[in-house]
Amino acid sequence: MKQTKPDYFVPLVMMGILFFAFGYITWTNGTLIPFLKIACELETDTQAFLVTSAFYMSYFFLAIPSSVILNKIGFKSGMILGLVIVALGSLIFIPAANQRAFPLFLTGLFVQGMGLALLQTAVNPYLSILGPIEAAAKRISIMGIANKIAGMLAPLILGATLLKGADGLEKKVAGTADATEKANLLNELVNRIQTPYIYLAVILILIAVLFYFIQLPEVEEESDIEEDTSKTKKSIFSHPNIVLGVLALILYVAAEVIAGDGIIQYGRNIGISLDEAKNFTTYTLGAMLVGYLIGIVAIPKYIKQEDALKYSAISGVLFSLVAIFSSGYTSVFAIALMGLSNALMWPAIFPLSIKGLGKLTKLGSALLIMGIGPGGGVIPLLYAELGGPANPQRGFWIMVFCYLYILYFATAGHKKKSW
């Protein structure tokens, strides 16, 4: 009797919805940085960049616990739980706006990141095993495009709501001596954030309900490939490629966050109005989308992944130097083009880092996911401290260092077999 092939169309559509949600939520941070700096009267860019710290550090703390949760409740229930947690984080923005309390906004962002960490840990492996394994890369590539398109839309949608006329309001606040009037103006600004985040929470809950009622196929993860125990290293830290790869991924995430989330505040620091700068993240994400499409076509047919990583790092160094030594819109354009440099880094660093780990592959993957935390949560603070309004271009020396190390990993680091 002929077996019927399973129909994965509906599950793939649901995964696409999740990847779209990831992209939208992640890339709202670029708009939140200048918005909360004004609304919460933050004194420095470093304080404002705590937005990325609160959001991304959740990955560091939740990567391994998320895998434990998924082992207990399964992929589908894990996705539903992740959506509910992100929705709860979004609703925390309501009391945060009512009190104009920056720490409460950071709490909401951390809770959002917790939910996304669980969702990412569930969706990526589920998508890989949802159908023929030899077509997994194609499925992930399609989902990546949905993710980047959502990332391009996020600053356009949120920026139009939160940052409309923000420059004029900021000047009005600065010229107001009366404390009550000043507070009323800032409260009026900060309350703009409530409606979009209420809508976001409602949409996420509706998606969770949809997941509850839709039948997703139960799929089993393939067991790890058995290796000759005489060749298997007992400690993951005895594999140089994963240790060096985690650092490469940390620095890549830092470069991606600075180029994507930092570009709006950079534009503001060099005198470009927020009404215009609010769309700059979309340009960075557009460049990333172009790079992603190039990678889908070119790797591995025309170029090896390690060579793609090498050329991406070289271009990143060049764009960083242009951003440092140019000015005005030329520097903004160079920062946006860093999105092109960053596009192929995750797809290349991840496999090169876990190659040859055997039974330690899952642990290596968890360490890489944890690297998202310090990459997005710590290094952008150093960038903001080094740069800022006084000398905004100086911060991009951090990017030069990031790309130079990634170049080392692409050319030599991933090849190391022993210390």
The residue-averaged pLDDT reads 88
Helix content: over 70%
What is the percentage of strand-forming residues? under 5%
Largest sheet: none
Radius of gyration: 22 Å
* Shape, per Cα inertia axes: globular
Structurally, the number of domains stands at: 2
Enumerate the spans where pLDDT stays under 50 for 5 or more consecutive residues. 223-230
CATH superfamily of the largest domain: MFS general substrate transporter like domains
Order of helices and strands: HHHHHHHHHHHHHHHHHHHHHH
CATH fold group of the largest domain: Growth Hormone, Chain: A
Distance between the termini: 55 Å
Quaternary state reads single chain
Q: State the CATH architecture of the largest domain.
A: Up-down Bundle
Total beta-strand segments: 0
Derived structural class = mainly alpha
What is the number of helical segments per DSSP (H or I, 4+ residues)?
22
Text of the CATH class of the largest domain: Mainly Alpha
